[in-house]
Design goal:
Elements lengths: L2 E6 L10 H8 L5 E3 L6 H7 L4 E3 L1 H6 L3 H19 L1 E6 L8 H11 L4 E5 L4 H9 L7 E5 L13 E5 L4 H11 L8 E6 L8 E6 L13 E5 L5 H4 L3 H12 L5 H4 L3 H20 L3 H24 L5 H14 L2 H4 L7 H18 L19 H13 L8 H17 L3 H21 L4 H25 L9 H11 L5
Parallel strand pairs: 1-4, 1-5, 2-3, 2-4, 6-7
Antiparallel strand pairs: 7-10, 8-9, 8-10
Length: 490
């Protein structure tokens, strides 16, 4: 079988080149190809009259790194198939930050080629020495060209490699500034472990993309921190805080809470978040969503202490559900519009019930509506569920006629009990009309409530400016101000 021997050239000059790799490269037993000639060992190899080629030309002709890596691997497999065995030299250690090696190992799993790894010192060893840290404290190695906010961890040493050029440095800076302040001190290490070339610069984060001479031997080191304004932006910190509140050394009020005692707060905080949405107040919404999240975290912590589940189980179940119910996004389904999504969503929910041993056909079609929903939303859900089996009007004119019918019956009612019943029928019919108009009745009424409050507050303010008491003015004066308020709150 064709074979590729991957030889690590080490992270520095020839003094750090492993003896076994040196013997292999100078033996002239197999063809040698290097990923790049931009490495301090290359001059030494030329002095030793090692005959080699490189893939630098592939970098120059390709649009992106992924394309480069695929082309290199394809060529290596082709050459190995022709020559039997080929030596492939890579910077550092073959198993550290070397995508082409991972692609080669994938080919080996497929039975295409055989891969042998000969290690060289990785750049990590040299970098740890350059910045004088011990990785036992915890560190993470990340790719600067694909770094995301979610990968950042301020609790450990972060080593960010593959900072090839100014563009990657700019991307890296912007990503880090999503968590760290602009003046956070980082260290930029160039040519770690290479005598005469190694340079370590401590700079504030905002200067990262202003450095000159950023190239393939540039690595960024981000030290860990205990600064509250940084750690408080991490989910793990939130979990720590909630666990501390519930601990024996925590808050007496938080310790005594149960799922039942917190029930009212979950409802209350949810309504306050909804109110912030209705007011179109993003700052208030941010705060209120935090309060909703607090309730979720408290319930999850209580369940964890009782041995039932933890917040990671909550997250896992939610991710699995969202992926399962969106096969048109995460799978191969091709649902064309929102109506088709809704239709298939219900089908998927029914399948989930069957997996849990619940037969959806034995349940009432109206089952599954939370008892705590506001009456308007309950009515809307009842109507939607009944409509799925055809218990619905065909034309909006028929719905209008039903509203008028219920209105006439309300006018004809003679007792309080009758009026209450008929008023409910009128409201139910109007909610049905809202459904046909694709209007959310709860949101519509909330908007009207807010508008009424704004207009009435305007009346109060204007009367106060005139030193008038609302109780002492007639209805016409207030009506005039009401009409005036519509200019400001239409």
């Amino acid at each position: 079988m064709a074979k590729v021997i991957v030889a690590g050239l080490g992270s520095g000059d020839a003094d750090q080149l492993p003896l076994g790799v040196f013997r292999l490269l100078t033996s002239a037993q197999y063809p040698v190809v290097l990923r790049t000639i931009h490495h301090p060992v290359v001059t030494f190899l030329r002095e030793q009259q090692v005959n080699f080629s490189s893939y630098d030309e592939v970098y120059e002709k390709s649009a992106g790194f992924n394309e480069v890596y695929e082309q290199i691997v394809a060529d290596l497999v082709r050459r190995a198939g022709r020559d039997g065995t080929i030596v492939y030299g890579v910077p550092g250690h073959p198993m550290v930050a070397e995508k082409t090696v991972q692609l080669l190992l994938d080919r080996e799993k497929q039975g295409t080629i055989e891969v042998e790894i000969l290690g060289g010192a990785s750049f990590i060893d040299a970098l740890m020495t350059a910045v004088k840290i011990d990785p036992i404290d915890g560190f993470v190695l990340l790719d600067g060209s694909t770094l995301t906010r979610e990968q950042l961890n301020p609790d450990v040493h972060m080593v960010i490699a593959q900072v090839y050029n100014e563009w990657v440095a700019s991307h890296l800076k912007l990503t880090l500034m999503e968590l760290y302040p602009h003046d956070y001190l980082i260290r930029v290490v160039t040519a770690a472990g290479i005598k005469g070339m190694e340079r370590v610069e401590e700079i504030p984060l905002f200067e990262l993309d202003r450095l000159k001479g950023v190239h393939q031997l540039t690595t960024v080191y981000v030290p860990p921190t205990d600064e509250a304004h940084i750690r408080n932006r991490q989910f793990t910190r939130l979990k720590e805080v909630i666990a501390r509140l519930r601990s024996p050394e925590g808050c007496p009020w938080d310790r005594k809470q149960t799922h039942r005692s917190l029930r009212k707060y979950l409802i209350e905080e949810t309504y306050e978040a909804v109110d912030a949405i209705d007011r179109e107040d993003p700052d208030h919404l941010c705060e209120e969503l935090g309060d909703v999240l607090l309730q979720i975290m408290l319930h999850s912590q209580i369940a964890e202490e009782e041995g039932f589940f933890n917040v990671y189980d909550v997250i896992s179940a939610l991710n699995e559900k969202m992926i399962r119910r969106h096969p048109h996004v995460f799978g191969e389904e091709n649902w064309r519009d929102a109506n088709e999504v809704v239709k298939n969503w219900q089908q998927l929910k029914d399948e989930e019930k069957k997996e849990k041993g619940i037969d959806p056909e034995e349940d009432s079609l109206l089952a599954g509506i939370p008892r705590e929903l506001p009456a308007t939303l309950t009515a809307l859900q009842l109507q939607k569920k009944a409509a799925r089996v055809g218990f619905d009007w065909d034309r909006i004119e028929d719905v209008m006629a039903k509203v008028e019918e219920e209105w006439e019956e309300l006018k004809a009612a003679s007792s309080v009990k009758e009026r209450e019943s008929e008023m409910g029928d009128v409201l139910f019919a109007v909610i049905n009309l809202a459904r046909f108009y694709s209007v959310d009745p709860e949101a519509a009424l909330a908007a009207t409530n807010l508008k009424f409050k704004q207009r009435f507050t305007y009346i109060e303010q204007k009367l106060k400016e005139r030193n008038l008491d609302p109780k002492q003015v007639d209805l016409q004066q207030m009506e005039n101000l009401w009409v005036e308020s519509k200019k400001f709150y239409p």
